[in-house]
Design brief:
The structure is a single chain. With about 140 residues, the chain is an alpha+beta fold. The chain has a domain at about 1-100: Gcn5-related N-acetyltransferase (GNAT) (Aminopeptidase), CATH 3.40.630. The protein is built from four helices and seven strands; from the N terminus they run E-H-H-E-E-E-H-E-H-E-E. The protein has a seven-stranded mixed β-sheet, with helices on both faces. The termini are far apart.
Length: about 140
């Protein structure tokens, strides 16, 4: 059974750190000191579990009426099964409930089409983040 929940960093930390480390630090070669930041503590975290294992995560940071989605990760063996879409939609819904009028995110260039399917639109030029090409994308709520 797959379960998705939204929680605080205090509750999420031990569950999401191993997955984020595997996806970002190991697979994508993001420097470890860039993966963990002060925003984790103030963010809302999506956690997807199956068979007592964390298989997906993402976070939502509120800045007034703007919600920033980030750190979206799905276990490699569980990709292309709709888990990322479920995480994204739950984070968008949480942003709406918290009063956001807009969601923004930094999409890795290869993931632009994934976010575009959920009505995010590219905004601005491609830029480097942790050695990976990204573009800002926005969704008006």
């Amino acid at each position: 059974m797959i379960e998705l929940s939204i929680t605080s960093w205090a509750e999420a930390q031990s569950l999401v750190k191993p997955l984020r480390y595997q996806v970002f630090v190991i697979e994508q070669k993001v420097p470890e000191d860039m993966e963990w930041d002060e925003f984790d503590e103030i963010a809302w975290h999506a956690i997807v579990t199956a068979d007592n294992q964390t298989i997906g995560t993402g976070r939502l940071i509120m800045h007034d009426r703007i919600a920033k989605i980030g750190r979206m990760a799905v276990q490699s063996s569980r990709r292309n099964q709709g888990i990322g879409k479920s995480i994204l939609n739950e984070l968008i819904q949480t942003a709406k409930e918290k009063g956001a009028q807009e969601c923004l995110l930094h999409a890795q260039v290869h993931a632009i089409a994934f976010y575009a399917k959920e009505d995010f639109e590219p905004h601005g030029p491609i830029f480097d983040e942790a050695g990976i090409p990204h573009v800002e994308m926005r969704l008006i709520l």
